[in-house]
Design a protein that fits this description.
Shape of chain A: globular
Distance between the termini of chain B: 31 Å
Largest sheet of chain A: 5 strands, mixed
Order of helices and strands of chain A: HEEHEEEEHE
CATH topology of chain B: Cytochrome-c3 Hydrogenase, chain B
CATH superfamily of chain A: NADH:ubiquinone oxidoreductase Nqo5 subunit
Oligomer: heterodimer
CATH topology of chain A: Beta Polymerase, domain 2
Number of domains of chain A: 1
Helix content of chain A: 10-25%
Number of strands of chain A: 7
CATH architecture of chain B: Orthogonal Bundle
Number of domains of chain B: 1
Strand order of the largest sheet of chain B: 1-2-3
CATH architecture of chain A: 2-Layer Sandwich
Distance between the termini of chain A: 45 Å
CATH class of chain A: Alpha Beta
CATH superfamily of chain B: Cytochrome-c3 Hydrogenase, chain B
Strand order of the largest sheet of chain A: 1-2-5-4-3
């Protein structure tokens, strides 16, 4: 399908259940939103992520009951450097929503959502391992894919593809 | 006592290490330790042109390469806004269902082997060999197929391909009866699998399990039916669901899927549309050889696509498809250049593995082997 321009005005996206539920919960937690290529992205305040996930999971208006994916993108050298990305799925509505939290390069940390979805456990460990983003309240935040004594975070953009020699 | 199971253990299907805290024969706590096959594919993708990523996706899950190819090319096509001709979509569906059968056959053979049923393995690999020959015929490779291109297919399937697939699809249902004859009512098999490694539906959802693991716990969810892609909405098939949540029901779900996949293959063969196999996008899709040799413009496009790739508009997409193991998802971020800025794979085995401790804790060590087999993990996909 041909690409249509992204919709970024919050008022044009109010009929989207995920956004409506979050705006009704706490207006200032939502920085902005974007609807592009049939996918809705919501930018959230850093401190609000765990509660926002809980709202989206439990609120009858939203019903995003499944955590599909959690990952991170390094935007080095621009600031805020990291974007942590959550893909939620609603099996009832057959819809997806993408949540994003932006983090600065100097203090990349945010709240863990393992208490909402235990599935986030491995995902958050992987992001910690490969990007160096810390998740507060994670039950076992240790390296997952790389060896325990590895130095550096391989998926950061300032880490060379061939590794350090 | 702490017991290390793996990384070198024949029933861990690769290099999975399980740290078991045991009390006698009972597992008290279990912690999977992964990363032994980590090759940094996500990082490598960032240094390749979009088309060059396709062969890498084969290597993630070497048992269902076509599924990974499909998921990646669908994501890239969504970024580019390409329209794929129906013939290419149907051949993709056809090959994906053959891949599902192929993957389930390897699973069934090795799972039965783990539990002690030797001969099933030989039966399954007999049919798998036929499938690998079909893949070789269409793509030139038995395992690492890389047959799909962004914008369509690499080549028109060769003469005799459809007849060969038809011949396979016609005799496959009775082969499934043969496997079932060996296992379904076999008292040893039933004893080893029924009421073993129970996973409740709520736990399965919370732990992110997908695919047959989720459906065997009673959650009716299949992306092919519920969020169709690549023309799956034009096919009629049932989604097998069981409610027991044990190893036996996961086995039954997958065996039923073998039959359903075969039905999809037959529908795809019967209704295969004629037409192009590549999208109309000269800046993305390579021109035909004949045109490339006779027309200046086509030659220029060919040269440019090969040497500098094609640029992809800025944006991000998440595309998920139903792989034999569950929800396979690709998240691609484009910064407007010819190389992806970030490629992330949401691999089903990786998430399903988190459900393993829930299945095994409080049960016997011997059941751990049955539980690992029943979630059908591929370590290449877990570690990437």
């Amino acid at each position: 399908m041909p690409i249509t321009p992204a919709i970024t005005n919050l008022n044009d996206l109010l009929e989207r259940p995920a956004l409506a539920a979050l705006l009704a919960w706490r207006r200032e937690a939502v920085h902005s939103a974007k609807f592009d290529r049939d996918e809705l992205t919501i930018y959230l305040e850093r401190g609000a992520i765990r509660e926002a996930c809980a709202i989206l999971k439990d609120s009858p208006k939203a019903q995003f009951n499944f955590l599909s994916d959690l990952t991170c993108v390094d935007l080095y050298p621009s600031e805020p450097r990291f974007e942590v990305i959550y893909h939620l799925l609603s099996m009832k509505r057959k819809q997806r929503v993408r949540l994003k939290v932006q983090l600065s390069g100097s203090d990349p940390s945010l709240e863990s959502i393992t208490s909402v979805w235990p599935a986030a456990n491995f995902f958050e460990r992987e992001v910690f391992d490969l990007f160096g983003v810390r998740f507060q309240g994670h039950p076992y935040l240790r390296r997952l894919l790389m060896p325990e004594d590895w130095e550096g975070n391989p998926l950061r953009k300032d880490y060379p593809v061939e590794g350090y020699r | 006592m702490i017991l290390n199971m793996g990384p070198q253990h024949p029933s861990t299907h690769g290099v999975l290490r399980l740290i078991l805290e045991i009390d006698g024969e009972n597992v008290v706590r279990m912690m999977p330790d992964i990363g032994y096959l980590h090759t940094g594919i996500e990082k490598t993708c960032e240094a390749k042109f979009y088309q060059q990523v396709v062969p890498l996706t084969d290597r993630i899950d070497y048992l269902c390469p076509m599924t990974n190819n499909l998921c990646y090319v669908l994501a890239a096509e969504k970024l580019l806004g390409l329209e794929i001709p129906p013939r290419a979509q149907w051949i993709r569906v056809l090959l994906n269902e053959l891949t599902r059968i192929n993957s389930h056959l390897v699973w069934l053979g090795t799972h039965a082997l783990d539990i002690g049923a030797m001969s099933v393995f030989l039966y399954c690999f007999r049919e798998r060999e036929d499938l690998l020959r079909i893949f070789e015929m269409v793509s030139g490779q038995r395992m690492m197929t890389s047959y799909f291109r962004i914008g369509g297919l690499a080549l028109e399937p060769p003469l005799g391909f459809l007849e060969r697939v038809k011949e396979f699809a016609d005799r496959f249902p009775e082969k499934v009866d043969e496997y079932e004859g060996l296992l379904t009512s076999n008292p040893i098999w039933v004893e080893r699998t029924k009421k073993v490694a129970y996973l409740a539906p709520d736990d399965a959802m919370a732990l992110g399990a997908t695919g047959p693991t989720l459906r065997a716990s009673g959650v009716d969810w299949d992306l092919r039916r519920d969020m169709p892609y690549s023309g799956y909405d034009q096919f009629q098939f049932k989604v097998p669901v069981r409610s027991e949540g044990d190893v036996f029901s996961r086995y039954m779900v997958r065996v039923e899927e073998l039959r359903e996949s075969n039905k999809i293959v037959q529908q795809a063969l019967a209704g295969l549309p004629e037409g192009r196999i590549k999208a109309e996008a000269p800046k993305v899709v390579l021109p035909e050889r004949e045109k490339m040799k006779t027309q200046m413009e086509a030659l220029i496009y060919h040269f440019k696509i090969i040497t500098e790739g094609f640029t992809v508009p800025v944006g991000e997409v998440y595309q998920a498809i139903e792989s034999p193991r569950g929800e396979m998802g690709y998240y691609i971020v484009s910064d407007g250049t010819a190389k992806p800025y970030r490629v992330h794979m949401r691999s089903p085995s990786y998430v399903n593995l988190q459900a393993l401790p829930k299945m095994c804790e409080g049960r016997l060590i011997a059941d751990v082997v049955a539980a690992i087999g029943s979630i059908d993990i591929v370590l290449g996909e877990i570690d990437r």
